[in-house]
Amino acid sequence: METLSPREWLRGLPKCELHLHLEGTIVPETLVQLSARNDAEPLTLEAARTLYVYENFLGFLMAFKAVSERLQTPADYELITYEMIHRLAEQGVKHAEVYISVGIILRFKTQITVEEMMAAVERGRMRGEADFGTTVLWIFDAVRHFGPEEAAVVFTKAAQLKAQYPSIVGIGIGGDEARGPASDFKHIYEEAKANGLHLTVHAGENVPASSIWAAINIGAERLGHALTAVDDPELLDILAERQIPLELNVTSNLRTGCCSSIDKHPVRHYFERGLMITLNSDDPPMFGADLLDEYETVQREFEFTNEQMREIAANSVEASFLQPTRKIKLLQAVEQYR
Ligand SMILES: [Zn+2]
Q1: For residue range 81-111, what is the model confidence (pLDDT) as tens digits?
Q2: Which secondary-structure segment (H or E) carries 231?
Q3: Which of 78, 177, 205, 247 is labelled catalytic?
Q4: pTM score
Q5: What fold is seen in the domain 17-336?
Q6: What is the pLDDT of residue 1?
Q7: Sequence spans of domains, the chain
């Protein structure tokens, strides 16, 4: 029997991507297309590539903003959604839960409403799902350093639009943790939960573990990054005991400088301690790695067996916000994969 390369085996492994930003999936080639449509002086491919080169976390946030600002029309949103699903399917991703930076749209985009954006990404999603088979659910992301009042507007939009678009399943806060402590969002997280939305929080990416405690205290069902939990044994015990899913992003942490080198990343340590870890790509072209690259890198660098990678893929299904029937089907597919 022909043996697959590790990469091809991982490609065939059914898996979910749970931490992916729609605006962070735009490759430089697509950015050039968007710029030709929308900029008075269109970007060259070289200039577009330069935007993806930055030196620190704030530089990354600036790059993210620069890309996000070039998304203007409904057609732009439809295009990037469709292209994202195409690329996910090519990596063997069966389902993805995707953050949309609604906080950025509300603050900076005067030419498109959240309603128009939503109708457009839904057109892209339905075409993409039909053509490639990978499903997508949406999470409305607020920018924490814009404060809880602006986040409240984002979460209210999510609750309102959810009736029309059941693909909206949750809310989250991203951005600069140091300037937007989770505790400030407790009340609006309670409201979002009461409105039937799932709760996620980016926590412990570039600030101490207290930020992760704060996220748990406002009811986070999934934690984005949770990198600094490694410094807090008591927190690790809680995460293991409660099996709170962690949306880990190894390559992202290295590229933003939040983790100084790959051997210092706690992914293996978390796994050994029985934490419920998932692997994710965050903003693939900005970090030079999609989810398949991420699986390949983590397996190689941390010497996970195929059986362990299967367990991590199963975690991604279990930690998703999918309906139980679909979860069971996907879990069976993971178990049966050889
Ligand atoms: Zn993120």
Answers
A1: 999 999 999 999 999 999 999 999 999 877 8
A2: none
A3: 205
A4: 0.95
A5: TIM Barrel (3.20.20)
A6: 56
A7: 17-336
